[in-house]
Design a protein that fits this description.
This protein is α/β, with parallel strands linked by helices. Helix content is 39%, strand content 20%. Strands 1, 2, 3, 4, 5, 6, 7, 8 and 9 form a 9-stranded mixed beta sheet that branches.
């Protein structure tokens, strides 16, 4: 396919992720995407993160290491620096799978009316071994209003002009900033697309915000309830809505596909899967 590839800005916020950040960086610059703008915003790490970033700085459009108020502020610093037509963020312990940026660019080229897309995401462990594949449904605003979300943050991509409708990340959120941003996308009424391919990998380990939990999650849930008048409350979905959602996933073979994937890939290195998809 002969297309004029748009510039894609990838933002990586980071703080003390020296154990994983090199793998993240390699997964982004290894895309060999012709119009990549890669930006890393480090929050003043005290481990070996900055030494690793410097190792790759010739491949970066911009990077900085300075104290900030957290991930949301770091993301906004990156988004405001970004000049790409398409934008995404990849956390410093997550990965882009080979060829993902070209797949995304081609999708947006074929669907000029779509402003935001999402794809599937592997779950991997601290040793970069595969746990499972999250086969998602198309993002649905009706289910979201019932408090049921089916999203994959590392596989979220959008046109930069979407910020004109939604604004940037809400810096009062420290755990669910991705979900709150997605809600504003729903509220804006723009067209949402889906790529039924695995675009990224999210790492599960014991120091992620999801694993640690704590008050930041409860504070963010409370803020969502307050801002949106009780809609989008993930603690308040009905059993009926959840069953309906599960039935749709069942009919669309999402559970079956994940089971088949687990049988073949669980416990294997993500590099092995990456080699398989590298020529897509």
């Amino acid at each position: 396919m002969q297309i004029s590839y748009p510039k894609i800005s990838v933002i990586t916020p980071s703080y003390n992720q020296g154990q994983f950040i090199e793998e993240t960086i390699i997964s982004v610059i290894g895309q060999k995407y012709p119009e990549l703008e890669y930006i890393i915003i480090d929050g003043g790490s005290t481990d070996n993160s900055t030494a690793i970033i410097r190792k790759y700085e010739r491949d970066l459009a911009y990077w900085i290491s300075e104290k900030d108020s957290g991930q949301s502020e770091a993301l906004n610093k990156g988004f405001k620096k970004a000049s790409g037509d398409i934008v995404c963020w990849i956390n410093s312990d997550d990965l882009l799978l080979p060829g993902s940026l070209k797949i995304v660019a081609e999708y947006f080229w074929k669907h000029p009316d779509v402003m935001f897309i999402n794809g599937n995401t592997l779950r991997i462990d601290p040793q970069s071994k595969i746990l499972f594949n999250n086969y998602i449904l198309r993002q649905n605003s009706w289910f979201a209003r019932q408090g049921i979300f089916n999203m994959s943050q590392p596989a979220m991509f959008w046109r930069r002009e979407l910020f004109n409708k939604t604004g940037y990340i809400n810096e009062s959120f420290h755990a669910m900033m991705d979900l709150e941003f997605l809600i504003r996308i729903f509220e804006s009424g723009v067209k949402i697309g889906q790529i039924d391919k695995t675009l990224s990998a999210i790492r599960i380990h014991n120091v992620t915000k999801t694993s640690v939990g704590g008050s930041i999650w409860e504070n963010d849930k409370k803020n969502i309830r307050t801002i949106y008048g009780g809609k989008y409350d993930i603690d308040n979905y009905s059993r009926l809505h959840f069953v309906l959602f599960a039935i749709i996933k069942l009919l669309k073979l999402k559970y079956l596909r994940d089971l088949i994937f687990k049988i073949r890939w669980k416990g294997k290195p993500v590099k092995e899967y990456s080699q398989l998809v590298s020529n897509r």
